[in-house]
Amino acid sequence: MAPQEFFVRERVRRLVESRRFQQAITVVILFNAATLGIETSAEAVARYGTELHVADHIALYVFVAEILAKIYVYRWRFVRDPWNVFDFVIVGFSFLPTAGGLSVLRALRVLRALRLISVVPSLRRVVSALLTAIPGMSSIVVLLGLVLYVAAVMGTKLYGAAAPEYFGDLPTSLYTLFQVMTGDGWSDINRELMRTHPSSWIYFVVFVLICTFVVLNLFIAVVVSAMEEEARDDRATLTELAALREEIRSLRESLGERVHSGPSMPVPPAHDRRLLDSAHAASDGR
Amino acid sequence: MAPQEFFVRERVRRLVESRRFQQAITVVILFNAATLGIETSAEAVARYGTELHVADHIALYVFVAEILAKIYVYRWRFVRDPWNVFDFVIVGFSFLPTAGGLSVLRALRVLRALRLISVVPSLRRVVSALLTAIPGMSSIVVLLGLVLYVAAVMGTKLYGAAAPEYFGDLPTSLYTLFQVMTGDGWSDINRELMRTHPSSWIYFVVFVLICTFVVLNLFIAVVVSAMEEEARDDRATLTELAALREEIRSLRESLGERVHSGPSMPVPPAHDRRLLDSAHAASDGR
Amino acid sequence: MAPQEFFVRERVRRLVESRRFQQAITVVILFNAATLGIETSAEAVARYGTELHVADHIALYVFVAEILAKIYVYRWRFVRDPWNVFDFVIVGFSFLPTAGGLSVLRALRVLRALRLISVVPSLRRVVSALLTAIPGMSSIVVLLGLVLYVAAVMGTKLYGAAAPEYFGDLPTSLYTLFQVMTGDGWSDINRELMRTHPSSWIYFVVFVLICTFVVLNLFIAVVVSAMEEEARDDRATLTELAALREEIRSLRESLGERVHSGPSMPVPPAHDRRLLDSAHAASDGR
Amino acid sequence: MAPQEFFVRERVRRLVESRRFQQAITVVILFNAATLGIETSAEAVARYGTELHVADHIALYVFVAEILAKIYVYRWRFVRDPWNVFDFVIVGFSFLPTAGGLSVLRALRVLRALRLISVVPSLRRVVSALLTAIPGMSSIVVLLGLVLYVAAVMGTKLYGAAAPEYFGDLPTSLYTLFQVMTGDGWSDINRELMRTHPSSWIYFVVFVLICTFVVLNLFIAVVVSAMEEEARDDRATLTELAALREEIRSLRESLGERVHSGPSMPVPPAHDRRLLDSAHAASDGR
User: Fold this and answer.
1) What is this structure's pTM?
2) C109 CA to chain B: closest CA distance, Å?
3) Which residue in A285, A273, A282, A271 sits closest to A248, CA to CA?
4) What is the ipTM of this complex?
5) In this structure, which of A93, B61, C263, D237 has its CB flanked by the most CB atoms within 10 Å?
6) What angle separates helix A200-226 from helix B200-226, to the nearest 10 degrees?
7) Is the pLDDT of residue D275 over 50?
8) DSSP tag of C184
């Protein structure tokens, strides 16, 4: 690498990592989020359509320039930071072809506002904390998925014919059971079913009880993992205690040593730990 | 037992307990769960009905063979492991007569997918943890059942005539109150009742308050039992502290011993523990 | 008191406090709960009306006899045990005049099933634990009541004319807000109101946010009070630590004592605690 | 300041801070809350309109007098206590012009009942505790707001045309999503949307999952901050342990000192800490 190029990269790196640069990007993100919000109003689009379009494109170009600068500075280390990948993917959405009536992709442009998470450190920390809670939940989530799947297959077989809008096919049943799991309007569904299947309440009550119990334990898993840092204090106490004990043992060893080496101390060598302990036990019983 | 038979059993045992065997069973379970899911689609059954039927039966035979192998290996110890019993019962469902229009029993076949819990260790651990939380909840569950029963009897007597679809008889009332307990649509029921019984809100408000409070305490019982392992750390600290104290006492005993045995130490024998303590107390007061 | 009477009382006391007696009462309670449940079925009353009536009266007389026996044994100390008062009040309900169409009082007879709580020790413990959690919640409950009252007065004034069925007068508003607080169907009420009062969503969103926050803190208060017994472990650790420190101080005092009294120890009297500490600090810095 | 004026101020201060004065204010607040509640009944206003009006004004004048007395006593320090500012603002509402049909401002008069919080110490403490929990929640609340905003913009773009009453414009979408977040009736909205947009369930399920997860973590943040005072115990234990260790070190130093200074102790100077430790390690291995 030419030293001149190195010099340029270093300057760009300093710029990209500067506090001021990040604040500027934050402002652009907020501004872009606002324009995307205003764009939802048909009236505003009719009046200021061109201005909004231009503003949106300027913001997009700023983001692209920022990402290119970062790639230029960090090269392949760019992909190491998951937040860079997050920014890259979100900005990338805007370059997917949206001409063919894919309003969904156009709507995804507003995900750019989520870039706020990657530039504001406190939000970044919160999201990181949320993500670290996920691995501890994976087993329970798999269990919940299994329960949902089994209940959905059973529901489709039992009530598919009677209530096709709720249990018509497997995906519909899965959605219905997800709704029941969130506790929203499950009784209406059941009361409708009970007209043809008077025992359907067993199905719902068992499902609600199992789900509530498993979801509760999912919550507890998150709470307990959140409290693990509190528990770290306890472990520090145990470590400190062990060190203290070591100290006392060494103190007693030093005492014993002196006993052996000092000529004026006629303590017999048998005066070992066990004896002391029994002596102590005896003295305790006084 | 002939040594040859012993040899065969040993080989079967090794096969059954091997990691590869368990992975194969896991694959069969997942495959069977998928075919049972596909079977819910009338279209798929119309096209691939025979294939699905055959696949289902193959999976079933694999499970039966697995269970027979385990019984052959472990003999009566087979029933000791509750997960074996779980597998046995779930596979057994498939052999109950389903000819007589018992669509429920046919639907129960999908419970086989739950066998995933018994073969995947992490799921097994999660479910075991969930089950251990249950005994600690039993008293509160009984209390909740009692509250439900009393409220259901009262509801049936008071509102049975006015709202038969909600409080017509005891089972209907129990179901309605279970629904109220999950917080779903209780206000609609009450507003309907209040037309004829203007004071029915007292019944509902009191029931909702008591249930919320008891259920909250049920949740707390689960949380607290989940945190008991955190508390174990504290108990470890206490044990460690007790050991430390023992050590120090024995250290002092050894010091006192030396005082007695050493001729150059004119400390009087009365220089016992109590005296030291009082001396210390005096020195504290300085 | 005549010694004979004392003898009788003592025998009755032993009977009343015997395990067998309490088990018999438990059976009567369960039996009575069952008959009261069966009585809710019009069909059963038509067939076995007299039998049910007799069974109910027998159970009632057993309860009355039990309470009279307890009053005879404990005299005025009877009212000291709140569970006795609980039993007395619940059984007393059955003697209120029910002739005048007061179906409510008849329905209250089923409260006798709650006597199960006072005779089964584990239920008794659970309910006691629930009740001890209440004082810690009182301030937050008062705060919640205040928020409800203020919101109800405001709701009545603002929306009383527009939605009389929800905010017609103060009690109706209080009930509606209680319903909103339990999270049931608040959006329906609001969507109806927003037709005439487009800004009513502010009222509801603010109320929902404040209530959720206060109720959350109410829950936390219960959780924290439930975990106080865990915290007791910590306090035990601190007490143990203090004792340990005492022990070590006294050990050092004894060492100092020997230094003073022993002629072969030329340690100067100035060799006091502070000096030792500074020496230690120096040695630490090595 | 003239000594006479000082004397007067001192007397007023004592009066304002006296327990009896605060009790009197509490009574006036409760009385005023009651009259404001009674005012919601059109019938009561028709009969006792004048009396209620007079009572309300008397209470208001008492509050004004109280605030003026406090300002007189504390001068500019009055605004230091946030509770004084709270009282000032709430009483101030009553002097805003209400003539122009601003029924909202008239309704805000009932906020005066909230003054109960500032005069009853236990309520004051509870509210202070609630407020201290807020800063710890700010990051998650901002995150939740961001998620709501992004989802609302997307919802408006995707479903604005199909369901104008739910996603017509940005504020409507925000309100709808707040409702979904509280778990009330989201399935009805979705089932309506799915008629025209069969994939809308993805939008709702993803939103519900993310919101539940973030709100759950918001709750945990509050719980953990509430338990920090429990954790303080642990820290006290660590401090105590450190002190204990110091004590033991100093004890050993004193022992070492004696070894050096005492002529009858032929322990070599090399008998330092490290040697003792190794000796101890050796003795451990026995």
Assistant:
1) 0.76
2) 9
3) A273
4) 0.76
5) D237
6) 50
7) no
8) S
